[in-house]
Structure formats: structure tokens, C-alpha cells
Fold this protein.
Amino acid sequence: MTRFIPLFPLNIVAFPGEKLNLHIFEPRYKQLVLECLEQQSTFGIPVYLEKGLGKYGTEIKILSLEKKYPNGEMDIKTQGLRVFKLLEFQRQAPGRLYPGGEVEYLETVQDEETGQRENILELLRKLYGALGIQSLMLKLPKNFLSYDIAHHLGFSIEQEYQLLQCLKESDRMEYILEHLRAILPVVQETERLKERVKLNGHFKHLSPPNF
């Protein structure tokens, strides 16, 4: 299924289901938001990377207009709906200030494999423990999906963009597992190094070897 929708390119990855608060200040995007509110329609956030506009993004619905300022700027609450592939991009949609484009919506498959979530949980406990942010574990939904934790893994925006392109939950989980297995030893070694640096200069209580 293809459709022409308003577009709001940003240097972020918005995932399906994610709640996103946005401050709108440019005239073209003020127009976009006002039209979406009036028509109860959606818009898309294609990911803008260093090398330019990416081909993938997320359809967004506006949940509420939280505040409107005297100069027309707005605070809005939004939520991601589904992933799309950008087929055609126009810097200005016909008769509008804002961009638009033809998009194809992509079907995602929830096919998590046995043990993937448990393995991720185990690695997350170790990672957050090493970083001293164990409180993040309390915020995890019981049956979390990859999208629920994607912004809490230390991914670069390029890595998040790669995750967005994975259409199967099992592939997204595996991508996360590979990332955690790669960074956990680095984080743990860094924390050990920090402890050694802190101890330098302190009186040391050491047992000599027993020859």
C-alpha cells in the first residue's frame, strides 16, 4: 500500500509505539501540524543522517496539542505507528510549505525466538549494573519488545536506523543481542579501569606472596 503523506525529516529514529514530544517552531512545520490536527491525519518522520535523507521512517500520529505559544510555536505529544519506505521525496508538497512524499508501509512480523528476551535481560542487567543505572530495569515492560528498549542500549543513530529496517522481531532481537555482547566487555573493562584510577594514591592493604 502506498500513500502520499506530509513529511517532517529529523535526525532521530522514531519507533512504532514510541511516545515522542516535539516542539514545533518552523513555519513550514507549524503548517504541517495545524493541518494534521484539523484533518486528524498523520505525518511521517524519515530519518535524516549525516549522509542525507534515509529511505526509511515512521508514520506518526498527534496525540495532543499540549501548548500553543503567542508566536505560533507549539508543543505536541505524538506516537509512532508503523514503518515506511520512502519512494519519492518532494521538498515541498503541492501548495504547501512543508515536504511530502510517496511512502510504502511495511509489514512487521512478531516472531521472537525462544530465549531471546531472557538473554537480552541477562545482558542488560550486567550492562546497567556496570554503569550504575540498575533503576532502568524497573522501567522495562514485562514482555518488552525490541522497540521498547532500542533507545536505552547505547546505539548510535545509524544503529537505530539499521534496527528500524529489520522487519522481523527475531532479527531485531538478534541485532540487539549482538550489540550487547560486543559492548558489555568494553564497558566492564572501562569500569574496572576507573576503579584502578580511583585507588591510585590510596594506602593499599596488600598481602605479599607466601614464598
Q: What stands out?
A: The first strand starts at residue 2 and ends at 6. Residues 116-199 form one domain.
